[in-house]
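Supplementary Methods S3. Complex input for the adenosine-5'-diphosphate-bound model.
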Amino acid sequence: MADPLRILFLSAEVAPFAKTGGLGDIGGSLPKALHAMGHDVRVVMPAYRKIEEGYPGVSSMPLQLNVPTGSGVINAGAFEGRLPGSDVPVYFIAEYGLFARPNIYGYWDDPYRFAFFSKAALHLTLQLDWRPDVVHAHDWHTAPALAWLHTAGQSDERFRGIGSVFTIHNLAHQGKTNWNVFDYMQLFTHSLNEEGYGEVNFMARGIYHANIINTVSPTYAREIMTREGGAGLDGLLRHRQRDLHGILNGLDYDEWDPATDPRLAAPYSLDDMAARDENRRALQAAVGLPQLDNIPILGMVTRLDWQKGMDIVGHALHLLMNGYSGPAQFVVLGTGASHYEDMFRQMAGYHREKMSAYIGYHAELAPLIYAGSDIFLMPSLFEPCGLGQMIAMRYGSVPIVRATGGLADTVQDGITGTTFYDFNADALFNAIQRATYTYNTDRESWRRIQANGMATNFSWERSAQGYQQLYTWALAQMHYHG
Ligand code: ADP
Ligand code: GLC
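Predicted complex, serialized as structure tokens:
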């Protein structure tokens, strides 16, 4: 094994403490895989309201963080816990006014909240008397830590020489704000081409300052270097392409295993599929659909965001619900943009016997949809990796995906699922027709596709090796240039 590394892992979401999507899954699982490889990895996230109100296994730490900012020293506290089922420490930066709000994001001062978080997290390491070899930051929220580390941090010997890795989970959210945020962080730097006059772009900063950059699938890594997929940062990404890598996400097999998942109606596995039907019926009961056998149930579990292809789902769903590909049931679990929430509510109200929409976040219902549906829809416009399709395959729900980003890297047409290319409702509906046709007429082929998906290995082991390699490269850069 390589030498054990000390890794400071910064994320705005860490499941089960805070999760709105896949970022939370990764924050809760990758550190465990790195720990299992022998590394000393410590996770830091903000103390959101759920933590401040008291979270089982999480306790307040007897320390005070005096974080210097352009508006004076701000005192913060910290909580401490462990990632469930592991020894990985998780620290929570506590500043009530900044973090203990009803939601994780969505506030005008988000860039300042996460700038403060980032600086406080670095200060925490001093109080713990623990010097990381590498800071691993995720998405724009924690990029300020790398901006500070590679500028102001270089004149502080306690931080000089620490390497960094920046992981892009979603280029669509960049964390733009005004230049005052750098005064607030006491950081002096020049402007980037990607930043308008007086503007700061934290996503661009992460890409610019980090030693090594990666995103969460090989295909998305290529797509973001194009004008079409670069969200305005493709030039910067091309400039750094020698340091840009694509590493596919893994699944937390402790959480996502149909043989042990306590949230299911009945456990099952590839060798014993009978109980899957029980989950099907339990799903129908839970969402109020008639308990019909032998018709395909299509499911979705998703943030209701334009990224997820919601604009082409509506029309395809209209055709599906009107029987153009035979009888079918449809169930969606999701929350997000109100116009998509309304779309699903209205359609479900109209097709009561065939369709059900649960608008909200529901951690217990999601597994039942993966386990009880036959087909899982993920027609994303873009998808950095996507965990939904991987969980679906592991649970025996056959995915229909648009061949983009991580979806293209994980689903094989006709072997583990159905893929389509053009971003329009016809192409999606055509894929739905192909899948339901196989389901309805050739159950043997269907079972084989289902089994192929369930047998695919989506565990973290290989990907965690990839991250270990990135850390080594980041450190090597600091030795040469640092
Ligand atoms: P993204 O991170 O872009 O949202 P992913 O497919 O990577 O997409 O991850 C989504 C994760 O969030 C999956 O674990 C999925 O089950 C979960 N999820 C999404 N929406 C909901 C919801 N409304 N209720 C429960 N879980 C959800
Ligand atoms: C983002 C992406 C998703 C990815 C997740 C975890 O939320 O939208 O595709 O799986 O991050 O990396």
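The pocket of alpha-D-glucopyranose (ligand 2) is lined by residues 21-23, 26, 169-170, 216, 249, 383-387, 406 (CB under 6 Å). The two ends are 26 Å apart (CA to CA).
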